[in-house]
From TrEMBL:
This is L-glutamate gamma-semialdehyde dehydrogenase. It catalyses: L-glutamate 5-semialdehyde + NAD(+) + H2O = L-glutamate + NADH + 2 H(+). Residues 56-511 form the Aldehyde dehydrogenase domain. GO terms for molecular function: L-glutamate gamma-semialdehyde dehydrogenase activity. The gene is pruA.
């Protein structure tokens, strides 16, 4: 602590820029896109402030143009991971002892760098690496990331301010120490903001970190590294490694100083990691904190009173923005028989109006899915639906990977509420609809609750308040983020803290005080001002 109790700037959500024709942000981002797309970069490991080039390189290609190389990155071997761990531990003493307001200033500066000089670059990198449209890049790589950083600084100061009461003669105080050891951050491909936030939130609280980004996001992760460096994150505080995820994870989890994991990705990977941590539990100096946000099978259920146009818009945006590659994306829908035909016709009209192609053409609403593995998986589910008698492709169903990994937005209608795509996370632009009898509303709510192992997001549409109340109660445990008359995507930091339970994660709500509390270990200090000198109670005298 410096010589004062400091108030941090009150955070306000970063306004989303329009990118309309003629706006400076449109020109800047397109210029950055062109420049970056046509010049290759070479991304090293960042260990203890050093750039390490192992020579074991992998090429990076945009999903929408997979033969076009935009750069290479260097894979680590086990020795690099050991060095990253020791680098983090060496950096820990100074970083953990830096006054919190100095750490806050670094991340506030990072937010301002993204809002200003790096905005076009981080958005363009996200368009290239993850094939996001400019709007999807803006709400993620610029706005959500800026919000994570600014709001987390506020939550950090709220945590430090929270202090216990003290009786006369005593002064109780709490220190929120960083964890003893280092944090391991493993991040997914789909949000540049999540990739930055998982290491940053732990580090902001005084921890040091080994960060392993997704192979498919390294290109935009490089911009995050540049921003953190320019903002003043010291050497060794965040060490960035890529390579075989199993080797990296096994090496990290074998360290006695492993103190916590901040994971976002698929459910099966997180469960495996949890098991490995359990198997190693006798080796650790402290019980590791395990924080993981994982998969979803997010629903929309419409009551017979819902307005078809509103439900259709929620499906079109909630299922297909960013090709359905949001953990929150609507992927199973329950429509009442009385309005299903009207709703589906409106969705079809929307889908048929979507333009698909490169994100560089800003009129495209749909771009490519992340990689060939995802493309092939999605194509196989679509092909199976074409064969199955209890499913029908209502719209879409085409795919083409000749230039990029393009999957047409696809709506499957099934007569079986347990059909495979009603409960399996596909993570792509495929949504499955089940039509229920209007008088089966209560049973359909039970179906929504019991069909999937996940509990991430969900939405109910109704104009009837009793139905909304019934759904809110019946679906209490099947979504960590529950939306009424809105699509189930698009959570905003500070407004809709995000996370789910059941197989969707530990629900530690990214971008909230609850998440930051996982990265500290409180120490209570009781100081007695004048110590007693007689063991007897007053009434024993
Ligand atoms: N709940 C949320 O907040 C949230 C947010 C974003 C994404 N997600 C989920 O993430 C998934 C999509 O992201 P993805 O495709 O990058 O996920 P993924 O599980 O394939 O990869 C996530 C990270 O884990 C690493 N990894 C993969 N296999 C590993 C292993 N065996 N051991 C250790 N690490 C391993 C990857 O390299 C990557 O860094 C979806 O399931 C989605 O629902 C959840
Ligand atoms: N925060 C995002 C989801 C993040 C996961 O992919 C949303 O609410 O749509």
């Amino acid at each position: 602590m410096g010589k004062g109790f400091f108030n941090v700037p009150a955070p306000v959500n970063e306004p989303v820029k329009s990118y309309a024709p003629g706006t400076p942000e449109r020109e800047a981002t397109l210029a950055a896109y062109k420049e970056m797309f046509n010049n290759k970069i070479d991304v090293p490991l960042y260990i203890n402030g050093e750039e390490i080039r192992t020579g074991n390189t992998v090429t990076m290609t945009p999903p929408h143009d997979h033969q076009h190389v935009v750069g290479t990155y260097h894979n680590a071997d086990k020795n690099h991971i050991d060095t990253a761990i020791s680098g983090a531990l060496e950096a820990r003493t100074k970083w953990a002892n830096l006054p919190w307001e100095q750490r806050a200033a670094i991340f506030l500066k990072a937010a301002d760098l993204i809002a200003g000089p790096y905005r076009a670059k981080i958005n363009a990198a996200t368009m290239i690496a993850q094939s996001k449209t400019v709007h999807q890049a803006e709400i993620d790589a610029a706005c959500e990331l800026i919000d994570f950083l600014r709001f987390n600084v506020k939550y950090m100061s709220d945590i430090y301010k929270e202090q216990p009461a003290s009786n006369p003669g005593v002064w109780n105080r709490v220190e929120h120490r960083p964890l003893e050891g280092f944090i391991y951050a493993i991040t997914p491909f789909n949000f540049t903001a999540i990739a930055a936030n998982l290491p940053a939130s732990a580090v902001m609280m005084g921890n040091v970190c080994v960060w392993k980004p997704s192979d498919s996001q390294i290109y935009s992760a490089k911009v995050i590294v540049d921003i953190f460096k320019e903002a003043g994150v010291p050497d060794g505080v965040i060490n960035v490694v890529y390579g075989d995820p199993v080797m990296i994870t096994d090496t990290v989890l074998a360290s006695p100083d492993f103190a916590g994991i901040h994971f976002t990705g698929s459910t099966h990977v997180f469960k495996d990691i949890w098991k490995k941590i359990g198997n190693n539990i006798h080796n650790y100096k402290t019980y590791p904190k395990i924080v993981g946000e994982t998969g979803g099978k997010d629903f929309i259920i419409a009551h017979p009173s819902a307005k078809p146009q509103q439900v259709a818009t929620a499906i079109s945006r909630g299922a297909f923005e960013f090709q359905g590659q949001k953990c929150s994306a609507a992927s199973r829908v329950y429509l009442p028989k009385s309005t299903a035909a009207e709703t589906l016709a409106l969705v079809k009209k929307d889908v048929e109006s979507f333009k698909m192609g490169s994100p560089e053409d800003l009129s495209n609403f749909i771009t490519a899915v992340i990689h060939e593995g995802s493309f092939d998986k999605l194509a196989s589910y679509i092909d199976q639906a074409k064969k199955d008698t209890d499913a029908e492709i209502f719209v879409g169903g085409g795919y083409d990977k000749s230039k990029g990994y393009f999957i047409e937005p696809t709506v499957i209608v099934t007569t079986d509420p347990q059909y495979t795509t009603m409960h399996t996370e596909l993570f792509g632009p495929v949504v499955t609809v089940y039509i229920y009898e209007d008088n089966n509303w209560a049973d359909t709510l039970k179906l929504v609750d019991s069909t999937s192992e996940y509990a991430l997001t969900g939405a109910v549409f109704s104009q009837c308040r009793y139905a909304l109340d019934e759904a809110t109660k019946a679906l209490e445990n099947c979504a960590g983020n529950f939306y009424i008359n809105d699509k189930p995507t698009g959570a905003v930091v500070g407004q809709q803290p995000f996370g789910g339970a059941r197989a969707s994660g530990t629900n530690d709500k990214a971008g909230s005080i609850l998440n930051l509390l996982r990265w500290v270990s409180p120490r209570l200090i009781k100081e007695t001002l004048v110590s007693p000198e007689d063991y007897r109670y007053p009434f024993l005298g």
